Amino acid sequence: KAKKDGKNTYKLSSDDEDLSSYKKYALDRDMRKAISNEEFELHFQPQVETGNGSLCGAEALIRWNHKEWGLVSPGEFIPMAEENHMINGITDWVIEKVCQLLKEWKEKGLPIIPIAINVPPIRFMKKGLFQHVKTQLENYGIDPFYLEFEITEDTLLNIESSVYSTIQSLKDLGIRIAVDDFGTGYASLASIRKFKPNKIKIDKIFIDNINNEDKVDNGIICATLNLAKSLEMNVVAEGVEEFEQLKFLKKNDCDVIQGYLFSKPVKKEMFEHIMKAGYLSPQVS
Ligand code: C2E
Ligand code: MG
Ligand code: MG
Ligand code: MG
């Protein structure tokens, strides 16, 4: 596409560039209406016990069903939502939606399991998180046991003491706290020391390297597993795609697996089938 520049001449710019900057513009513009237009949806990625594949949890992962762009992945719009501050409303929507679905599943007689929600640092800095959570749990009649909040290490790096007290109140209420993307942030050990989480999620970047027999990354995985065991925390390995990785994690006593090897994130209806079945087998390709 030819673009006019200031001097009345034309220069070429790639279609891709135009498309992506237009897309960014459009997403930023349309985000404000996305909640009221009911354009967000949640997919669920199962978490299974390493030993027997039995379903023990799931992570709620947001997608945006945009009228022009189709299903937009969170990697594309969550960073934008953090900049334009829509993330707070989006997070509160996810919390309510999960409570609503848990109620629906309970009423359908499905054996419900804890659902993990990603709560970004910026939401902890704004008031009202604890009250919102408490209200939703009460409105939908959900036991706090069924909610798990995934926070990143940078949440715990934040020096505002209100962040700690909010996390503590959530823990006291009975909501479990998991540290997401463990090992990739700046506060791995400090975060555990200052605030003992219930669970840590080993990031995919470490899992990816298992097959390469990378001494450093495999060492980090084993050290994390030992640390978790001695502090009585649960561990989830994220991004497990291959059988070899599963074998390594099983051998080293990792409790729980989340990854494409067992299941990609799936739509609600598919997730209901998985809940009913209660277990998954590794998809050996
Ligand atoms: P995350 O919280 O670390 O979520 C895990 C991501 O890894 C998900 O991507 C999941 O689909 C992907 N994944 C899991 N197993 C595998 C695997 O075996 N192979 C590969 N290649 N990928 C795997 P997704 O759904 O695109 O989400 C990306 C990130 O977007 C999430 O990373 C999270 O940081 C953010 N996100 C997703 N949903 C929400 C949300 O509701 N709220 C907020 N604040 N952030 C969200
Ligand atoms: Mg997560
Ligand atoms: Mg993660
Ligand atoms: Mg991640």
Molecular structure report:
There is one protein chain. This protein is of the alpha/beta class and 285 residues long. It has helices spanning 15-34, 74-83, 87-107, 121-125, 129-140, 153-157, 161-173, 188-194, 204-208, 215-230, 243-251, 268-277, and strands at residues 2-4, 10-12, 40-49, 55-66, 70-72, 115-118, 147-152, 176-182, 199-202, 234-238, 256-258. An eight-stranded mixed beta barrel has the order 3-4-6-7-8-9-10-11, surrounded by four helices. Strand 10 (234-238), helix 11 (243-251) and strand 11 (256-258) form a beta-alpha-beta unit. Helix 3 (87-107) runs parallel beside helix 5. The protein binds ligand C2E and magnesium ion (MG) (3 copies). Residues 180-181, 201, 203, 238 line the site of one magnesium ion. Residues 24-279 form the EAL domain.
